Design the sequence.
């Protein structure tokens, strides 16, 4: 099927806009905003951990909901995706007026649910659309918008910091999220998947192949470790910088900027390495670097450790996501969206443990820095299980990811 470059660009733009709204502005903007919320007295560190945890509970619930909407027929109809995307932007707007902690918990939970639905369905729709046109190797580029959104969210959190306070700090995020949600919903609604031959999967019944088999089970176990491993740096790195660095250090506000910049620059690299070397080999390298990044604040406390953590975790965690999703589809191409939804649900469940355990540790007198040891260990777990994915599936992986 001949596809114009403009069509591919618009498909990637639609998916990217959706991920900017739900993941960069709706979710991870909380990371650079948290130090300001602490200084404003809106929340304390334990409450901040609880807000993050409830957001991840919602993310898990949203990913599980997306399992119901995973089938190609439902993806063609776009059921749930535009509504969840627009709802997420409106929740970000509502947070601008929420100073009550209990209300914030509810809103962060709802944000997570809508985020989980969109984060599963938008990339899955774009991947299936590209795969139907033999361009699956471009699918990782859908995450470029999210990485750019991380960089932008750092600026939106810090540039107007002196003129905003408390819940009002969400206003710049909401001002961008609402129009981007409208754009993303419109572009994604234009994507049409070709009908597949009649089968149980297409009719919405359970596929004949189980999700867990000899090839996919190690991938699931690795992805659980990835979810737990990356979430501590991606939630608390700017806060950790304030624990380790002196007043006035450029990394107090710059740590998240370096994280976002590394993420943005690394996505084309991991997309290319996966297509060139095979997604499994690239994923092994990604987890090794990510584990070193999570451990860096423990091994080299201070400027070096914080900067290495920002660069190595920021430069690998989205690579791990796109490589895992593409590898999963190559292992079971007939049920790619279902497998993607199940993996993200597992990833979301594993993320719950990170902020919760960090909050417990801090509440019992430990430091935030010490809690990063858990993330490093989880990423080594992910590395080990990725190594155990059967090598004879590697040739399928490369064939499914043409450049």
Sequence:
């Amino acid at each position: 099927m001949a596809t114009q470059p403009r069509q591919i660009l618009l498909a990637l733009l639609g998916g990217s806009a959706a991920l900017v709204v739900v993941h960069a502005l709706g979710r991870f903007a909380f990371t650079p905003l948290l130090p300001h919320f602490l200084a404003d007295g809106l929340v304390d560190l334990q409450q901040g951990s609880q807000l993050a945890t409830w957001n991840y509970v919602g993310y898990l619930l949203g990913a599980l909901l997306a399992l119901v909407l995973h089938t190609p027929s439902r993806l063609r109809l776009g059921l749930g995706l535009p509504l969840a995307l627009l709802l997420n932007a409106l929740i970000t707007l509502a947070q601008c007026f929420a100073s009550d902690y209990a209300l914030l918990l509810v809103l962060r939970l709802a944000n997570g649910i809508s985020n989980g639905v969109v984060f599963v369905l938008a990339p899955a729709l774009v991947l299936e659309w590209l795969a139907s046109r033999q361009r699956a190797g471009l699918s990782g580029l859908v995450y470029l918008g999210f990485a750019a959104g991380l960089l932008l969210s750092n600026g939106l959190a810090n540039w107007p910091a002196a003129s905003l306070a408390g819940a009002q700090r969400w206003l710049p995020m909401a001002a961008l999220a609402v129009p981007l949600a409208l754009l993303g919903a419109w572009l994604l609604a234009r994507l049409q998947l070709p009908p597949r031959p009649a089968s149980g999967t297409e009719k919405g019944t359970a596929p004949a192949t189980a999700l867990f088999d000899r090839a996919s089970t190690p991938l699931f176990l690795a992805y659980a470790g990835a979810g737990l491993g990356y979430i501590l740096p991606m939630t608390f790195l700017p806060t950790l910088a304030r624990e380790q660095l002196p007043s006035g250090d450029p990394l107090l506000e710059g740590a998240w900027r370096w994280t976002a910049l590394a993420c943005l620059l690394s996505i084309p690299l991991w997309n290319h390495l996966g297509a060139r070397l095979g997604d499994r080999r690239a994923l092994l390298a990604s987890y090794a670097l990510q584990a070193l990044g999570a451990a860096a604040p423990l091994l080299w406390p201070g400027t070096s450790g914080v900067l290495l953590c920002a660069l190595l975790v920021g430069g690998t965690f989205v690579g791990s996501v796109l490589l895992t999703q593409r590898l999963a589809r190559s292992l079971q191409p007939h049920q790619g969206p279902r497998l993607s939804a199940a993996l993200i649900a597992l990833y979301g469940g594993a993320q719950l443990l990170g902020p919760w355990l960090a909050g417990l540790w801090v509440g019992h007198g430990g430091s935030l820095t010490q809690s990063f040891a858990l993330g490093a260990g989880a990423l080594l777990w992910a590395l080990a299980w990725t190594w155990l994915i059967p090598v004879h599936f590697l040739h399928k992986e490369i064939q499914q990811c043409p450049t």
About this structure: Residues 101-131 form the longest helix (31 residues). The chain has one domain: 9-192+214-399. Residues 198-208, 394-403 have pLDDT under 50 and may be disordered.
